[in-house]
């Protein structure tokens, strides 16, 4: 019988908090059971496996990021929208490093289909409408923005920019300026 008060949603939220504390890779059903001071078996009525827990955390993180992205983009266009959206990813990674890592998890096709990943792509394409890109260049630009945002944030989170001047904030601003300039003068094929 399931322990009173334990739900998939509560376990997912606790797993996300655990991921932020100890790292996403360290999140397991066993670690979660210890957090609730219950036997591992009691969690299996809510979770199929540690992979199921990680997928749930990834879905939660994608949803949180999408909600923040939508709020940041409201009423913005062009470079202002680009910078606001990029800062959502960077700020989220700083606030929730484990969840940010979870958002990078490769989901099953079924989980991906119901995830907020589609919302992320739609918001990125909305930003690109301000740059007047058409297909297939728009898809190339979506991939570029994902690479820039996630690549920079991932390197920064691992301390990759902490050993030299200038400050990583200055580089971030310059990278976004350069990205805006590139999008405004997108090369012809």
From TrEMBL:
Residues 28-47 bind DNA. It comes from the Bacteria. GO terms for molecular function: DNA binding. It holds the Pfam family TetR_N. The keyword Transcription regulation applies. Transmembrane segments: none annotated. InterPro entries: Homeodomain-like_sf, HTH_TetR, MT1864/Rv1816-like_C, Tet_transcr_reg_TetR-rel_C_sf. Gene3D superfamilies: Homeodomain-like, Tetracycline Repressor, domain 2. Keywords: DNA-binding, Transcription, Transcription regulation. Residues 5-65 form the HTH tetR-type domain. This is AcrR family transcriptional regulator. It comes from Streptomyces zagrosensis.
